């Protein structure tokens, strides 16, 4: 189980991020990237436990004995959730600066970028990043809180 | 006007409703999930279902090209949000039933009436 | 001169702003808030006074798609009403500051009074039907708050509810009537519009359109019902005397001078639009009936305010009758009497307040000879009461004379039964003289009952009625002055043709002059028999319920109360399944009935989808059935997962890779969550009672049939063109959104706002779960287990 997780989790994570980035032009996007990332992290829980991400991956001390509400990983998810909401709102409000209505999206073409030659940057990607963060944050909060029970 | 689709949606709604009416709280949550799934199918059916094909996927080939005939992207966007929301509601319903069980020590909804 | 949008909007908005600030003002100013209110009213009055003589429509759009906008039309009629409301408002606020001395709840009182004034200005000036309705209902609401000012008092609450039910019920009729007008405008003005000014400008076309669609009589009936409820016309007059439990300034302001005139005002407004034989028959009859009944009841009244309330209903009837007649005099009578009635009735109410305040009673039988202690008040009453009676040369005489001329002219032209009009009007006027003298009698003659020392009323109480009585006296002496200043404009706005109002004392004998003479002489001759008359009327009033409209009201309200008290527990019995049952059954039956009524049998295509899709869906439904029959929870979850994965495959087959991916992952997560929770829950066994199972199965099949029918009726055929929305998004995805994945572009760009809302839903779900699980731990620390309410089952609340 753990061996499988070691192999699959990085692949799934990379896949989810690539799905997220290509979402504007190919199948994918913030929702799918988000749920896939959640799935990858949940796989870690199932294989290891809630503290593994901190202790095993980041090498930090884990304070035991605190309730799930104060649990640092859960705290981190809630921050992710909050950050996502901020990004979503921020990308919406940013339009005000140039006089557009709330949540107006636009895009630019960047040319002459190495390797890709031509890259299109859509402001919607920022919004999508927010979607990604909110989905990851909330779904992981749900799963980790429930599983901690 | 596909009878097969209509039968499927109708059948799923019927099953979902039947589950919602059970005394067993977990089955009520099952019913919620089934009704969600039925709704997805319904929404997709509103956009029309044709033989699946590479060309029908709502991803355009090139920038600035002509507009090809593709599957309805609006219903797909609707369903995509619906999927994530139904996950949220199902999870909430599950946790609620768990807490209700903790408080009432039964998952028989008829015994909650005081 | 065209009106200025800013000035008009400010004049209407200032009272509302002040109403919001009233609690704050009250904290700072205390009881002097009344003077601040007077200043606000004066500001509105001043702003509107600058618009006198202007004529036209100003508009600022609100919902352009529905042609709804904040639209004001300034003409003589609207301005007359608005100036009257704000002018009397100034005096009533000054009076209130003194009269309401030492009362509680004054912040609410002033807030409601100010909001009321703003709404009345809105009704008077708005010419967009939606806004007229909103302001109309706002006047009812503020009236409700003001009648129920003494919240501790059961009678006060009862009367407030009664006024609310009647006037808001009338308001609903108005809404329906306005919608009918808006629909009729489609034919007449080339599109659904709520623009009343445009309708009035094209009244011929509107009438033709209404007649053509057969909606003329319904629209007329709805509008007249609304106006009758608001303006206390028989048989909906019974709320007005009850409304007298309100503080006296409120009675003077709302229930004599302004709010009750909203109905009359609106009748005058739509008069040019709806003038027809039906209108004359309905409105004129209604008005004269109310005039008579109100006057009779006023004669029988023993309470000063009750007398004035019935008399108000009677005079409102006079105005309504005036507007009912299709002759020039009719409209003139209605408009001029609106002004005159406000000028004599408001001071009479204020006088009643002074007498109640100083002498401590409102019972007419105990009052007499008050002129010694209250000479100024007595003088005010003299002017106002004689005006109310229609004695020349007081101002009430002129407008009543106009009504007599209208009735005479109509009767003269039509003959036959139409002679009832002048007859009834004269009889009603006889009683008007009787009750006017009865009211005046409390000041003259000898003291009837010992009353403890009577104080001189302070200036703030005498000033406002004195100002109004002076105005009445000015109009009495020089009526043409008032006519030229403002009434002529109002007459033109409400007239069906050309009209020029000339008033003055009659110089030679004519039948209407004779009618006036009969009324005055008859009234004075009848006065000595007042008590016998009152007793006779009293016997009629105390008759069994069928003839008393207030009895019907009580009956209807109590029936509704008991029925809902019985019905509630039946539907909301705390059982989840009962709720689901009623909602699902009602929804399905309604939807199916709707389909059956409107939709034809669609063209059926037995399969209509590719074979693979059919197979997948069959498996999905089978999995669903397996969920129902699963013997344990875990088996149920697993079959549910099969269902979910089948749906994912369905998505792939329906060319939706995004959905399929998401569905697969989400399904996995749901499975995991279920398994995590289920291990903590006990197993439970399904119902065994076959009757319940059969009932649920029937309902399920009903819901399934509804879903089946709606899918059949709403889904496009395989060859149908994509919807215009889909086409637009597809075409715009690359140029507008810069992405070629249309679904994603729709989500993050075109419909980003919806996505934002959806994210909030997910966030709320996450937070709720977090709180449900974690707060319990805190909750258990804080309170004992037994006291904690289970969060989950809303069903067990009483």
UniProtKB/TrEMBL annotation, chain B:
GO annotations of cellular component type: plasma membrane
Highest classification ranks of the organism: Archaea, Methanobacteriati, Methanobacteriota, Stenosarchaea group, Halobacteria
Membrane topology per record: Multi-pass membrane protein
Keyword Transmembrane helix: yes
Keywords tagged on the record: Cell membrane, Membrane, Transmembrane, Transmembrane helix
Listed transmembrane segments: 6-21, 28-50, 74-96
Protein name: Cation:proton antiporter
Compartment list: Cell membrane
Highest taxon of source: Archaea
Pfam families: Oxidored_q2
TrEMBL record, chain C:
Domain NADH-Ubiquinone oxidoreductase (complex I) chain 5 N-terminal intervals: 65-110
GO molecular function, one term: antiporter activity
Organism annotation: Halobacterium bonnevillei
GO BP terms in the entry: monoatomic ion transport
InterPro entries with a match to the protein in the record: CPA3_Na-H_Antiporter_A, MrpA_C/MbhD, MrpA_C/MbhE, ND/Mrp_TM, Proton_antipo_N, SO1590-like_sf
Keyword 4Fe-4S: no
TM regions (residue ranges): 6-26, 33-54, 74-97, 109-136, 162-189, 249-267, 279-301, 376-398, 418-441, 579-601, 607-628, 635-654, 660-678, 690-713, 756-775
Domain MrpA C-terminal/MbhD, residue spans: 619-682
Topology in the lipid bilayer: Multi-pass membrane protein
The protein, known as: DUF4040 domain-containing protein
Record-level GO cellular component terms: plasma membrane
Alphabetic keyword roster: Antiport, Cell membrane, Ion transport, Membrane, Transmembrane, Transmembrane helix, Transport
Boundaries of every NADH:quinone oxidoreductase/Mrp antiporter transmembrane domain copy: 126-413
Location(s), subcellular: Cell membrane
Pfam family, one: Proton_antipo_M
Domain named MrpA C-terminal/MbhE: residues: 694-774
């Amino acid at each position: 189980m753990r061996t499988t997780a070691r192999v699959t989790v990085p692949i799934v994570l990379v896949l989810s991020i690539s799905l997220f980035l290509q979402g504007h032009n190919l199948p994918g996007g913030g929702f799918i990237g988000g749920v896939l990332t959640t799935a990858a992290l949940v796989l870690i829980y199932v294989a290891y436990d809630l503290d593994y991400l901190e202790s095993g991956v980041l090498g930090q001390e884990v304070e035991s004995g605190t309730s799930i509400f104060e649990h640092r990983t859960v705290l981190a998810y809630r921050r992710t959730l909050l950050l996502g909401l901020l990004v979503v709102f921020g990308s919406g409000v940013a339009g005000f600066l140039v006089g557009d209505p709330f949540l107006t999206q636009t895009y630019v073409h960047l040319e002459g970028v190495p390797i890709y030659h031509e890259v299109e940057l859509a402001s919607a990607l920022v919004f999508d990043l927010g979607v990604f963060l909110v989905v990851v944050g909330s779904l992981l909060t749900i799963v980790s809180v429930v599983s901690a029970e | 006007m596909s009878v097969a689709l209509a039968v499927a949606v109708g059948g799923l709604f019927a099953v979902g409703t039947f589950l919602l009416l059970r005394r067993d709280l977990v089955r009520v949550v099952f019913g919620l999930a089934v009704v969600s799934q039925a709704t997805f199918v319904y929404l997709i059916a509103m956009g029309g279902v044709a033989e699946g094909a590479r060309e029908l996927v709502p991803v355009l080939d090139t920038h600035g090209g002509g507009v090809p005939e593709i599957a309805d992207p609006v219903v797909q966007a609707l369903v995509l949000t619906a999927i994530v929301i139904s996950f949220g509601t199902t999870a909430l319903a599950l946790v609620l039933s768990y807490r209700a069980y903790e408080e009432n020590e039964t998952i028989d909804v008829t015994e909650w009436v005081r | 001169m065209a009106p200025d949008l800013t000035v008009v909007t400010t004049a209407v908005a200032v009272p509302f702003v002040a109403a919001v600030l009233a609690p704050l003002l009250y904290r700072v100013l205390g009881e002097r808030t009344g003077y601040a209110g007077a200043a606000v009213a004066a500001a509105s009055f001043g702003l509107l006074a600058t618009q006198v003589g202007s004529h036209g429509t100003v508009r600022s759009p609100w919902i352009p798609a529905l042609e709804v906008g904040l639209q004001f039309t300034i003409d003589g009629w609207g301005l007359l009403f608005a100036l009257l409301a704000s002018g009397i408002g100034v005096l009533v606020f000054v009076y209130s500051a003194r009269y309401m001395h030492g009362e509680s709840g004054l912040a609410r009182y002033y807030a409601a009074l100010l909001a009321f004034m703003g709404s009345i200005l809105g009704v008077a000036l708005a010419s967009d039907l939606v806004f007229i309705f909103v302001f109309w209902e706002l006047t009812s609401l503020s009236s409700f708050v003001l009648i129920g000012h003494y919240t501790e008092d059961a009678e006060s609450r009862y009367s407030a509810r009664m006024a609310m039910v009647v006037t808001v019920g009338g308001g609903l009729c108005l809404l329906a009537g306005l919608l009918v007008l808006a629909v009729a405008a489609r034919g007449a003005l080339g599109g659904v519009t709520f623009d009343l000014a445009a309708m009035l400008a094209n009244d011929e076309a509107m009438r033709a359109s209404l007649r053509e669609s057969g909606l003329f009589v319904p629209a007329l009936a709805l509008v007249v019902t609304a106006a009758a409820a608001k303006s206390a016309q028989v048989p909906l007059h019974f709320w007005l005397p009850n409304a007298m439990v309100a503080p006296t300034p409120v009675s003077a302001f709302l229930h004599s001078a302004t709010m009750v005139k909203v109905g009359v005002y609106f009748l005058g407004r739509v008069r040019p639009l709806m003038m027809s034989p039906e209108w004359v028959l309905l409105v004129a009859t209604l008005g004269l009936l109310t005039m008579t009944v109100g006057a009779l009841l006023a004669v029988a009244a023993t309470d000063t305010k009750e007398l004035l309330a019935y008399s108000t209903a009677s005079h409102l009837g006079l105005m309504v009758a005036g507007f009912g007649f299709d002759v020039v005099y009719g409209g003139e009578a209605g408009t001029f009497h609106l002004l005159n009635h406000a000028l004599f009735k408001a001071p009479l109410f204020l006088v009643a307040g002074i007498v109640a305040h100083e002498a401590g009673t409102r019972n007419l039988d105990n009052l007499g000879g008050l002129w010694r202690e209250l000479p100024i008040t007595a003088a005010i009453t003299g002017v106002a009461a004689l005006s109310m009676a229609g004695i020349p040369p007081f101002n009430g005489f002129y407008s009543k004379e106009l009504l007599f001329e209208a009735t005479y002219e109509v009767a003269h032209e039509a003959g036959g039964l139409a002679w009832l009009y002048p007859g009834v009007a004269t009889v009603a006027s006889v009683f008007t003289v009787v009750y006017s003298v009865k009211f005046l009698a409390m000041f003259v003659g000898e003291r009837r009952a010992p009353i403890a020392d009577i104080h001189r009323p302070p200036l703030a109480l005498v000033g406002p009625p004195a100002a109004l009585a002076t105005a009445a006296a000015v109009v009495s002496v020089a009526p043409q002055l008032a006519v030229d200043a403002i009434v002529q404009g109002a007459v033109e706005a409400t007239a069906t043709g050309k009209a020029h109002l000339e008033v003055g004392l009659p110089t030679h004998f004519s039948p209407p002059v004779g009618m006036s003479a009969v009324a005055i002489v008859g009234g004075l001759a009848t006065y000595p028999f007042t008590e016998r008359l009152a007793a006779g009327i009293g016997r009629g009033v105390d008759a069994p319920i069928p003839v008393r409209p207030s009895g019907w009201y009580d009956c209807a309200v109590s029936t509704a109360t008991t029925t809902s008290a019985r019905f509630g527990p039946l539907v909301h019995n705390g059982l989840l399944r009962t709720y689901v049952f009623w909602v699902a059954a009602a929804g399905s039956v309604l939807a199916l009935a709707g389909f059956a009524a409107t939709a034809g049998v669609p063209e059926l295509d037995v399969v209509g989808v590719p074979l693979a899709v059919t197979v997948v869906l069959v498996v999905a439904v089978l999995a669903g059935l397996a969920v129902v029959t699963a013997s344990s929870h875990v088996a149920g979850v697993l079959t549910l997962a099969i269902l979910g994965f089948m749906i994912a495959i369905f998505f792939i087959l329906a060319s939706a890779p995004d959905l399929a991916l998401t569905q697969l992952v989400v399904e996995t997560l749901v499975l995991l969550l279920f398994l995590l929770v289920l291990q903590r829950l006990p197993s439970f066994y399904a119902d065994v009672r076959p009757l319940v199972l059969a009932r649920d199965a029937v309902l399920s099949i009903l819901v399934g049939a509804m879903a089946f029918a709606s899918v059949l009726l709403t889904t496009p055929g395989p060859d149908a063109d994509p919807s215009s929305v889909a086409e637009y998004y597809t075409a715009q995805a690359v140029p507008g959104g810069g992405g070629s994945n249309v679904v994603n572009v729709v989500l993050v760009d075109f419909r980003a706002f919806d996505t934002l809302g959806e994210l909030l839903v997910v966030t709320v779900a996450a937070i709720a779960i977090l709180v449900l699980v974690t707060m319990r731990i805190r909750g258990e620390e804080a309170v004992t287990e037994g006291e904690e309410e289970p969060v989950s089952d809303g069903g067990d609340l009483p």
